[in-house]
Design goal:
The structure holds 2 protein chains of 2 kinds.
Chain A lengths: L8 E7 L2 E7 L5 H8 L18 E4 L2 E4 L12 E3 L8 H8 L9 H14 L5 H8 L9 H19 L1
Parallel strand pairs in A: 1-5
Antiparallel strand pairs in A: 1-2, 3-4, 3-5
Helix pairs in contact in A: 2-5, 3-5
Chain B lengths: L6 E3 L4 H13 L4 E4 L3 H8 L7 E4 L9 E3 L3 E5 L4 H7 L3 H7 L5 H4 L4 H5 L9 H6 L2 E6 L3 E5 H4 E2 L1 E2 L6 E8 L7 E7 L7 E10 L2 E7 L9 H7 L6 H9 L14 H20 L4
Parallel strand pairs in B: 1-3, 2-3
Antiparallel strand pairs in B: 4-5, 5-10, 6-7, 6-10, 8-9, 11-12, 12-13
Helix pairs in contact in B: 3-4, 9-10, 10-11
The chains are: A alpha+beta, B alpha+beta.
Chain lengths: ~160, ~280
């Protein structure tokens, strides 16, 4: 069993397709490391308690609230933040459907919706509702967000035909 | 952000995990086993949980098992609730797990973490209280114990022990069942009461969460509910007498209101079985 007197550990995180060496403490959340150590401020601090979803990122293909994950758990996993999405259909759909108002929750919602359309191409209304309940929009722009998700799912299905 | 630092250990075997715990304890530390870590973060922020050495059990293969054998379902404690619900090998567990937190959080919350947590609700406990289930616990030795016996308000773990697996009789997985989570309003937030039920050998079994500061199953409450000689209303009134105390009385709902909701929910359960629904 290795022990160290220093609380810091040097690890490599795989973020947005790049390997990033970073010095972390085991008690650091992934959100803190992304924002403060790596400068990726698109993931937003909201409740810091796993309730609001503003900090949602993608870890190994799954939506993940980065305030609920210790950064020390992240080495070896592929992390995508909002900065790592470049012109994906869900981003275009958010613009087209005007699925944002103040915008604070938007990056978290997009990351959750990105996971939704990637992992559940046949998602029904029940699953869409269930997944969107993971995030909170205090401007209450939920209908437009739902429309954005459905438009991507629908266009993906049309592409398959 | 937590107000305390901790060492992090990620053993790859049960033996290593137990050994690390013992070494850390001899060093005067307060080690804690964990799977998902969500409660360490949320309750740690409030200084309601503290540890200076976390032992992450996610890398232990036995803790990640999700396997159906001829006779049993074996579920590792480090499986996420999402992993369980997506394979849906235990439908009642899937239903109760889908009521925990939200979809994204369930990508992190583990079965063992929910069962061994501090939070009142711990709804993943309910299906195991109702069925013929066992807990596999690692410590100085590996022991397999009846879940009904080892869970009394909390999972009764000895110092240095942790939950490895839950084993459930395969015959119990597809029994007629009922699950309902009643909240004060909307579909999100903490429950006023959650009731899970199965019907086995003609007898209704009930396990309840959200009513008391712990999930429970009461044999006396069930006896009253299964007394077919009296009306459903009388059965429920008798059953309520066997609810343990204390009953939660907080911002989600008063104790009186929770009992009111429980009565209606029990009526729904009994009528559902009478109607042949499952």
């Amino acid at each position: 069993m290795k022990t160290s007197s220093s609380p810091f550990r040097e690890v490599s995180l795989h973020v947005n397709g790049e390997i990033k060496p970073v010095l972390i403490k085991p008690s650091d959340t992934l959100l803190y490391i992304l924002r403060v150590k790596l400068g990726l401020t698109g993931s937003k601090p909201g409740c810091l308690n796993g309730d609001c979803g503003a900090c949602t990122v993608n870890v190994d293909g799954m939506a993940m609230k980065s305030c609920l994950m210790f950064a020390i758990e992240a080495p070896g996993k592929r992390i995508i933040t909002i900065e790592g999405l470049k012109g994906t259909p869900i981003q275009h759909a958010f613009i087209k459907e005007f699925a944002f108002q103040c915008g604070y929750c938007t990056s978290g919602f997009i990351m959750n919706c990105y996971s939704l359309v990637e992992n559940y191409p046949d998602a029904n209304d029940e699953l869409i509702t269930e997944m969107l309940e993971s995030n909170i929009c205090r401007c209450t722009g939920y209908q437009e967000i739902e429309n954005a998700v459905k438009s991507v799912l629908s266009s993906n299905k049309n592409l398959e035909k | 952000m937590l107000s305390f630092d901790f060492d992090y250990h990620a053993p790859s075997t049960l033996k290593e995990a137990v050994s690390i715990y013992q070494i850390l304890e001899r060093q005067g530390k307060q080690p804690l086993f964990y799977g998902g870590g969500t409660e360490v973060l949320t309750l740690g922020r409030l200084n309601l949980v503290y540890s200076d050495a976390l032992i992450d059990i996610k890398n232990i293969p036995e803790c990640r098992v999700q396997m159906l054998t001829d006779k049993h379902l074996v579920l590792g404690a480090a499986l996420t609730l999402t992993a369980l619900t997506e394979r849906n090998l235990f439908p009642l567990l899937s239903k109760t797990a889908r009521g925990v937190a939200d979809h994204t959080a369930r990508n992190k919350i583990t079965l063992g973490g929910n069962i061994c947590g501090e939070i009142f609700y711990r709804e993943a406990v309910l299906p195991f209280l109702l069925t013929d289930s066992y807990a596999v616990i690692a410590g100085n030795e590996i022991r397999t114990v009846s879940f009904d016996e080892v869970f009394n308000q909390f999972l009764q773990l000895g110092k240095g022990e942790f939950l490895v697996q839950l084993i459930t009789n395969r015959n119990d997985l597809r029994l007629p069942q009922f699950h309902i989570k009643r909240r004060k309003q909307w579909n999100i937030g903490y429950p006023l009461v959650t009731v899970a039920s199965i019907k086995k050998a003609g007898t209704v079994r009930i396990a309840i969460s959200g009513l008391c500061p712990f999930p429970f199953r009461s044999k006396k409450l069930e006896e009253a509910l299964n007394n077919n000689d009296i009306s459903i209303e009388s059965r429920i009134n008798e059953a309520i007498q066997h609810v343990p105390s204390p009953i939660l009385h907080d911002v989600e709902g008063s104790d009186e209101y929770r009992i009111f909701v429980l009565k209606n929910t029990l009526q729904d359960v009994l009528e559902s079985y009478q109607g042949g629904e499952s």
